[in-house]
Each structure stands twice: as C-alpha cells, then as structure tokens.
Amino acid sequence: MRISKKWLQQYLDVSDLSAQEIADCITDAGLEVEGLEAMSSGTNLMIGEVETCVDHPDSDHLHICQVNFGDKTEQIICGAPNVRAGIKVIAALPGAKLPGGEIQAGNIRGLESNGMICSLAELGVDPKQLRDDQKNGIEILPADAPIGDRDPLAYLGLDDVVLDVSLTPNRNDCMAGWAMAVETGAVLNRSVKLPNCEGAANEGSATRLKVSSTTKKCPLFLGKVINHVTIKESPKWMKELLAASGIKSINNVVDISNIVMLETGQPLHFYDVKAIPAQEITVKDQLECTYTALDGIEYTIEKDDLIITSEGKPIGIAGIMGGDDSKIEADTAGIIIEAASFHHVNIRNTSRRLNLSTDASIRYQKGIEPLAAYKAMDRAVALLKEYANADGLEATVQYGDDAYTPVEITVSPSRINRLLGTDIAVSEMVEVCRRLQLQPSMQGEDIHVVIPSVRQDLLIEADIAEEIIRIIGYDRLPSTMPLMPATVGALNERQQMRRRIRSLFTGFGLYDMITYTLASQKQVDDAIMGLTPVVELASPMSEDRKYVRGSILPSLLDSVAYNQNRSVKELACFEMSSVYAKGIEEEHLAIVLCDTLQKSQWQNIVIPADFYTLKGIIKTMLAQFGFEGTRVIVKPNTVDVEHFHPNKSACIYIGKDLLGIFGDIHPMMAKRYNVSSAVMAELNMEVLLKNRASKVKFAPISKYPSVTRDLALVVKTETASADIIDTIRKSGKRMVTDVEVFDVYTGEHVAQGSKSIALRVTFQSDDKTLTDKEINEVYEKLLNALKQELQAELR
Amino acid sequence: MEKLTMLREEGLAKIEACADLASLQQLRVLYLGKKGPIQEVMGMMKDLSKEERPAFGQQVNEMKSLLSKAIDDRRALLEAKEMNEKLEQEKIDITLDGYQPKVATMHPLNLVQQEIEDLFIGLGYTVAEGPEVELDFYNFERANIPKDHPARDMQDTFYINAEELLRTHSTAIQMRQLEKFSPQLPIKVICPGKVYRRDDDDATHSHQFTQVEGLVVGENITMSDLKGTLEFMARKMFGEKRVIRFRPSYFQFTEPSVEVDVSCHICGGKGCGVCKGTGWIEILGAGMVHPNVLKMAGYDSSKCSGFAFGAGIERIAMLKYGIDDIRHFYTNDQRFLKTFTRFE
C-alpha cells in the first residue's frame, strides 16, 4: 500500500511530523513501512522567466538563456529542445542538490552558465507520470507561475513523500486509504475526519438497468446509470493523489473511479452508457471464449473465469479489466457504475492464469470489506456531482447482498492482562479501543466493543488483546520466564543415536552433509535400499526435483562429484535423513569414502578408503549401540549388484534384519554419477532402533596370564577368513579368547589358487595358568580342525 | 700394611680414570674378584699372628667396601653419561609434523540446530519431530489456515495430492504435538525440521530449508513469558548483551503475533551493514497460540494458554557465521564445511 503524507493530511493533521516520524510510528504498530519515496527532490530551486533565448555560437543545440528571477537575472546555457523566450521555468541554481548530482556555476563551450533549467525527470519525478513532451524537455510552468518562488516543487504539488507500507494478510483493509487514515490516527492518537458521503447514491429516478449473476462467485453487484457527465481535466488534488499512488491521470471521470478505489478499497468500473444499449449486465462463468480487454490483448477465457456480459457478450473480465468498446472517452456523455464483489480465489486464479494483474485484481484477491461497495457508490456519486457535473441520476440497482452482520465482542480486561502478562489499566484499554473506533463501552467489569466493517480481522478477545498491546507498545511488555511444574528436558533414543553417530563419524574424519530431499528421475532410479512406491509431487518445479527421495546415496554422490570436480579428492562424508515412500517414513544413514581416509605418508600411516575401512567404521558404530559379535552378520551382497561392485560389497544384518549394503561403488554407477572410485553404504537406522541393544555388563578380568601363538596357514583363495576364525574359536572352546588376522598374502612362494593367512591366537583361562602342554593340546586340535574343515595347511 | 695403602690408592686412581662400563667391570673383577690383588693380600693373612689378624682383616674389608663403593659411584656416573649420549643421539626434529588425525565437522545447520536444542533442553523442553511428507490437515487446517486462505496459495506449497504435501513450516510438528498431548498440561517442546516451499533457489531463497519452533502450553502462560524466553535464547545465541524487541505481525496460528528483532551482534545496535543500519536483526516470528488452534486440539482455551515461536536455522547460521549464500548449505563443498569446527 502506497500512501502519501499529503493524502493522510486530507484526513488528519500530520503537518508537524516528518514522513519518517509517521513511518516509524506505524511500523512500530505493525504496519511495516518498507520505504519512503519522495515524489521529487532538489534544493536551491527557483522559478524564473526565460527573457531571451539565442543559439549558442559553438553548438548546434545549446541555447543561451537570460533568466529573470525577479531580483536578479542569470545567464544559463540550456540544451533542451523546447526552451524559448517568454516561458516560466524551474532553475536549479549553483549549489543545488538534485537526484543526479550537484549543480555548479560553470563554463559551457566558452560561455558562463549559472545554473540549470530543469525537466521534472531531473527533479526525481517518476518518468511514468510524465507525458512524452515532459520527458523530452524542460518543464514549462503555467504563465502565472510566481517568478522568484523558491519552492517550485510545492508550487507543482510535488513536495510529497510516499510511504510504502507492507501489509500483513490480516490488515488488507489498509489497502483503502480511509482505513489507513483511521489506523494512523489511532497510532498517533489524533482525530481523523473522513469525507461523509453516506446516502449520496440514494438519489435517482426510475431505471431500466438490470444487473444479475448466474454464479455464486459474485455475491453482490451494484449498478447505477448516470446519464450526464462532463469529461474534463481532473482537479489538482486528484492528479496529485493519483500520481502519489502510481496511477496516471486520464480524465476526471476515469480518475474518480480510481480515486474511490484508492480511498475505499473497492474497485469500481465505469462503462460508457451508450456501449451497453440493452441496459442489462450479467456476471457469468462457464463461458469459453476469447476476449480483447482494454489493453488491446486477446485473452482466452475458461469455464471458471468470471465474465461481465451484456446481451450474452463479454464486456469485461470481472474484477480484473474492462473492455475497449465500453471505456470512458472524451466524448462519453453518460456512464454506468459497477461496484461488485467477486470471490477472491476466482479473481486470483484468473489473474494468475492470464498473467494479468491490475489495481482492481490485487484488491479483489486480498478481499474487500463487506460494505465497501455501498461506500464506494456513495463516494463516486458525490465526486461525480462535484467534479463532473453529474446529472440525470437513476436509482441504484442491486443484485445479491453483502451477507454482513456486525461483530460485537465483550472482552475481559483481567483475562487480557493475564494473557499478556501485563498490568494495563482498564481505562487505558478503553482509550485504545476508542482510538481504533471500536466504540467501547463498559459492561460491568468487561469492555464491550463494536467492530467496524472494515476490521474483518477482529473476531475474538485475543484479537483485541493484540490491538491493545500493539497500540500501547510492546516495550511495555515485561520479560519473565514461565512459572510451571518442572519438566525434564531430554533427547529421545533416536535423537541421541543421531548425535552419537554424528560425533563419532566427524571424529573419524567424515563430513556431515545435508542434501536436498527432492530428487530427479535418475536419482530415484538409482535408489539404494530405496523405498517404494516413490512419492511424486503433483506439480514439480523442475525435472531435477520431482520426487521425494527414498534413498540418500544418489544425492550424496552428487555432492561427492561436486567436490571431486574441485580437486577435493580425499573426501569422506555421511548424511542422516528421513526418506519416504507412499505411507512409509524411514531414517537412513549414507556414507561415502573416497581415496584415503587418514594418512601421514612419511610415517607410513595410510588408512585407505576401502571396503575394509568402511566395514570397520560401520562395526565400530554398531558396537557403540550394543550391536557386536554374533548379532552383526556380514554376508555376500545378493541384494543390489547393480549399484555396488558385485564382488567387493556386502550386506550387513542385525540378527535377521537387513541393516544395509556397503562396499565399492559399481564402475557403471560411478560413471553415471561422475565420481572416481568410492566405497559407500546406505543403512536403515530403523533396524538399530527396532532391535534391542545388549546390556552393558562387566565381565571379571582373568587373573591368569595369556599366551599368544602365531600361525601362518595356506588355504584356498576363496576360503573366508571368518570361517578360519570360527573354526579356531569353535575348536579352541573357552581357552581361545582372541583370534586376529595380521597378514594376508598371495604371490611368490604361495601356490596359485591359494593364499597365506597369518593369525595370532590368544589363549587364556579364567581359572588357571595354562601350561605349555595344555596349550599344545588345544593348538593341535585346532590345527586338525582347520585341516579337516578348510583344508588349511601350516605354512 | 703399606701394600694395602698402595693398593687402595692405585685402585681408586684406576677407577677414577676408567672411561667405560666394560673396563669398570674388569676393575671390579680385578679388585673384588677371587683372584685379584686384594685376595692376594688376604692370602698373606695366614702369615700374621693371631692378634694382628682381626685388625688386618678389618682393614682389608674396609678397603674392599671403599673400592666397591667407588666402582658403584663410577658406574652410576658412566651409566648416566652413556644414557645422555644415547638420548643425544636419539634427538628428533620436533618441527616435522606427523600423523594428525583428520577430524571432520558437523554441518553448520546441524550445529546451530543442536545448539538451540541444547539450550532449550536445559530449560526442560523435549525435542519433537514429525514427518516431512505431511497431511494438509496438520500443516494447514489445524494451524488455523482453512481452505481458500491466501496463505495456502498453491504457489508456495509442494502438494503431493489433495491431502498430502511437503510440510511448509515446522508448525505442522507443533500441531501434532498438541494433539498428542491433549488434554495433558504442560507442553514444552522444541520442534526442529526440514521444510519446503516453492521457491526458486538463489542466494537468499531455497526450496528446502530448516526451521525450529518452540511451543509451551500451560495454565498461566503469558506473552511476557514468551519475551523472557526469547530474550534468554537471543543472549545464549548472540551474546549476553543482546536485547530483543517485539513488532506486531500476523500469523494464522498465533494471536497476538509478533516479529522478534535482536539487537545487532555485529555493531551492538549502532547500525551497520549486517543490520542495514537499523541496529536490529529480525530472527523470529512468535505469538500466543491462537484459541482456535488450542480448541481444535481439544484444549479449553479459557483454562490454558501458550506461546509459540519459530526461527529459520539457515538465517541464524548465516548471521552468526557471515555466510552470504544459502545454497552453500546444500552444495556441501568440503572447503565450506570445514570452516565450522565449533559453535561460537
């Protein structure tokens, strides 16, 4: 909403306040002024008369002007095409500050020039408000302009400042200048006087005009014929008000329709009476046609659009734009006034579809107060009589009704104070209600208020509480902490798990990442452990963001590729996020490791980003949550060999539940995602939350020494080390407490198809010191078992 | 006797002159062993009279212990010297860097979210979450935003079908919490989560972002309590000297509603580029829970009241760390992420 200081001044005295002061006050009360815009600007200006104007000898376009300012005459060189002797002009004298810079006395092609003769654009006037001749040349003032006047901007009525007010959706009533004035008066605590035109439209003789609607989307339609109007130039105040509101002045009648809209918020439409000979207007929908509106553009009208028709033919797009053939022109002698309500959703949809937004459609979309049509009709008639010699008025005809019932609320001052935590006196509350024109009266302890029709946002006590505190000022609100029974603040199991993983993994050198939830077709096709059926957006913004993802890895791989493209090679990362399918929500954990995880080359420390490192990280993480030993099962990957290397990946289970898949990325997948080799995992965290973790319990430490024996075995290449370890553990019974692989070797000295595995076995007993003999017995036993079960030979 | 004195002087001199542990050991064997000069002297004892023998024996023993002590002292000295030489040889270049474990960082959004969660957990709040694929019912209807309300503009919401959508605000979590607790009191929750709006991604807009909301409902919860709580939060997040101010605003699910500004943490309120010269930075929306919202969840709004507040985590992170482009959060450039080693 744009409202100028001068416009406000029509209704309340703000002459002692600067625009900035007004803006600060109404901003504090909740109507945020986003900017102040001077209609024009310039200092050290003066009105002068060009006495002589001769061509500059050294230029084909410059003129030497002698400008008379009353008490002095100055020479000014001017290049404007329309400068000539005998006109009154605005001159910026040396030292003048204009939007384009400061004016100085100078020398133009050898001749002294003591200032500049100005165009309005040079004085900061919006070019949209200017005629072509004004844009192209200096401003020529009326012949009676006062020579020597030091405030030409005021003389032109351009000494105004516009407040650009951003309205919250509940205060769209302030789209109407009158409502804005009432609000400003309440905030500043000043009395407001609005024009009183009530009943002006009651005048009128019998009429032929018929108005109706075939759709419920037009609940109210007022029409009125005025047979005689005089088209002429608008008075200065109207032109200024329109200019300040960014609307171009056309003629008095068209301007009145716009002025009334600005004042009341109700868009009006004036038809030339001769263009509607049937004197019948019907609002329709379900009409499919093309229609050329006032702007000369042909629009395609669909079934849901509201159309104003006469004799079945469109004469306007309801609430948005009228037609060319019924518009008000210089020869218009009589008019039909339309003041109607249209359903805001309809106007919004049509306006958006046609990509056509007008002052009227914006107001309809935001909703218009229920009585606006009557007020606007009254005001229009009053203005037309005053400024357009309106005569031959016919009675107003009405279709539908406003369905308005006044709202009255009884509020309790003590409850309001309790809600706010304040101690505001009842008298002060009453005073605020009075300032807001809520007609307060006391009913016992309570305050009774009557809500004006413009304030559709005030319905309940809490609304009144807000009015009171925002007008009094939030600086009056104390600062306290809630007084209530103690509550325990804590994270739940899931949240704790997330935090544990995050601190563990970042400690390992894995970066915590967040990627977009919305995914492309490709990302959905490449889902890993993905959920189905996939959730698709009804109307996506782009192909890249069409689906709600059911797996994290594809989007995480995109982030990996982004980093690799920027020479970040040693990248390790993870993401935890909810993923979705129709009716399903799961939390997943995805991990990607590239190149090297940790290293110190000269110390020969290198932790490669490979299958085994990833496996170790996952197992350490699981152990943190009490999942270890036989509960964690790693099996060959038979679930997804499309995205993973079929022979360098595995499925991991907690008991019987598939936790996830991890391993080397499939070369084809790596190519598709433009990543160099990587290992990756996608795990379903729900499995961890679903399964019970083992209890933490202390097991006594053996008092007896442990003995280690190393053995190097030669086994077939395909023999799993886990089977060797299992065999040793099983045959070693309770005496073997640990088995660790410390070397794996293939190559020279080991037969083709075989590998050498070196293990360190720890023997220990809980109840005695083991003798060599006892250890040897067990050792022999496990060697035999290895030989029989796995054909393992000692190397 | 003279021989003894001579032996002693000679021995002590040799021990004193001994330069390494091996020769010292030889001296020990020589003087204290079974075949050394002292044993030889001892052998002479049998030639002495019975009366002379004890004194002689005593002298020999004294001499033995004297030499033994001299050898021990010398050994300790030589050992210390040898140790020092060894340590000297083991000197390393301490300026060389070795294995420094690479520690990664938490995502700045998670960092800020955790910081906010923790400060409210300290006040007795629990952390509540909810689905991102949400029902229209919780996202809008329960939040007092009925069908056809301009706030539900199709432009802003990613709909999946008539009933389901991607939640547009974490208010949806609050609405589920109200329903879950109803009719129990009090409720004290903090609700963080990802939210989605139909926005074209640019430096200041993102179709996906993160919000955190707080909700307290109890028997006598006032708007002053809201102010005190948010002041506490602002000070924890932006420094003890911060003050806040309320400006009237509008949200469908609160009444009264306010925007909350915090005095600028960069300039302290004098006005700078970050606060656009105003001295204030808008960081929160808040208000008293709308009676309709309480009613829909099954609470009697005449018997309880509540406050709610919400903030954008991206915005807080951008302000705190001086991040200029919201897209950084979702690009995951490691060079960006590694900055956020801790919350400040």
UniProtKB/TrEMBL annotation, chain A:
<dbReference type="InterPro" id="IPR004532">
    <property type="entry name" value="Phe-tRNA-ligase_IIc_bsu_bact"/>
</dbReference>
<comment type="similarity">
    <text>Belongs to the phenylalanyl-tRNA synthetase beta subunit family. Type 1 subfamily.</text>
</comment>
<dbReference type="GO" id="GO:0006432">
    <property type="term" value="P:phenylalanyl-tRNA aminoacylation"/>
</dbReference>
<feature type="binding site">
    <location>
        <position position="463"/>
    </location>
    <ligand>
        <name>Mg(2+)</name>
    </ligand>
</feature>
<dbReference type="GO" id="GO:0009328">
    <property type="term" value="C:phenylalanine-tRNA ligase complex"/>
</dbReference>
<dbReference type="InterPro" id="IPR012340">
    <property type="entry name" value="NA-bd_OB-fold"/>
</dbReference>
<dbReference type="GO" id="GO:0000287">
    <property type="term" value="F:magnesium ion binding"/>
</dbReference>
<keyword id="KW-0963">Cytoplasm</keyword>
<dbReference type="InterPro" id="IPR036690">
    <property type="entry name" value="Fdx_antiC-bd_sf"/>
</dbReference>
<dbReference type="Pfam" id="PF03484">
    <property type="entry name" value="B5"/>
</dbReference>
<feature type="binding site">
    <location>
        <position position="467"/>
    </location>
    <ligand>
        <name>Mg(2+)</name>
    </ligand>
</feature>
<dbReference type="GO" id="GO:0000049">
    <property type="term" value="F:tRNA binding"/>
</dbReference>
<dbReference type="InterPro" id="IPR041616">
    <property type="entry name" value="PheRS_beta_core"/>
</dbReference>
<dbReference type="InterPro" id="IPR002547">
    <property type="entry name" value="tRNA-bd_dom"/>
</dbReference>
<feature type="domain" description="B5">
    <location>
        <begin position="404"/>
        <end position="479"/>
    </location>
</feature>
<keyword id="KW-0820">tRNA-binding</keyword>
<keyword id="KW-0547">Nucleotide-binding</keyword>
<dbReference type="GO" id="GO:0005524">
    <property type="term" value="F:ATP binding"/>
</dbReference>
<comment type="subunit">
    <text>Tetramer of two alpha and two beta subunits.</text>
</comment>
<keyword id="KW-0067">ATP-binding</keyword>
<keyword id="KW-0030">Aminoacyl-tRNA synthetase</keyword>
<feature type="binding site">
    <location>
        <position position="457"/>
    </location>
    <ligand>
        <name>Mg(2+)</name>
    </ligand>
</feature>
UniProtKB/TrEMBL annotation, chain B:
<dbReference type="InterPro" id="IPR004529">
    <property type="entry name" value="Phe-tRNA-synth_IIc_asu"/>
</dbReference>
<comment type="subunit">
    <text>Tetramer of two alpha and two beta subunits.</text>
</comment>
<feature type="coiled-coil region">
    <location>
        <begin position="70"/>
        <end position="97"/>
    </location>
</feature>
<dbReference type="Pfam" id="PF02912">
    <property type="entry name" value="Phe_tRNA-synt_N"/>
</dbReference>
<keyword id="KW-0175">Coiled coil</keyword>
<feature type="binding site">
    <location>
        <position position="255"/>
    </location>
    <ligand>
        <name>Mg(2+)</name>
    </ligand>
</feature>
<dbReference type="GO" id="GO:0016740">
    <property type="term" value="F:transferase activity"/>
</dbReference>
<dbReference type="GO" id="GO:0140096">
    <property type="term" value="F:catalytic activity, acting on a protein"/>
</dbReference>
<dbReference type="GO" id="GO:0000049">
    <property type="term" value="F:tRNA binding"/>
</dbReference>
<keyword id="KW-0436">Ligase</keyword>
<dbReference type="GO" id="GO:0005737">
    <property type="term" value="C:cytoplasm"/>
</dbReference>
<dbReference type="GO" id="GO:0000287">
    <property type="term" value="F:magnesium ion binding"/>
</dbReference>
<keyword id="KW-0547">Nucleotide-binding</keyword>
<keyword id="KW-0030">Aminoacyl-tRNA synthetase</keyword>
<dbReference type="Pfam" id="PF01409">
    <property type="entry name" value="tRNA-synt_2d"/>
</dbReference>
<dbReference type="InterPro" id="IPR010978">
    <property type="entry name" value="tRNA-bd_arm"/>
</dbReference>
<keyword id="KW-0460">Magnesium</keyword>
<keyword id="KW-0963">Cytoplasm</keyword>
<comment type="similarity">
    <text>Belongs to the class-II aminoacyl-tRNA synthetase family. Phe-tRNA synthetase alpha subunit type 1 subfamily.</text>
</comment>
<dbReference type="InterPro" id="IPR002319">
    <property type="entry name" value="Phenylalanyl-tRNA_Synthase"/>
</dbReference>
<dbReference type="GO" id="GO:0005524">
    <property type="term" value="F:ATP binding"/>
</dbReference>
<dbReference type="InterPro" id="IPR006195">
    <property type="entry name" value="aa-tRNA-synth_II"/>
</dbReference>
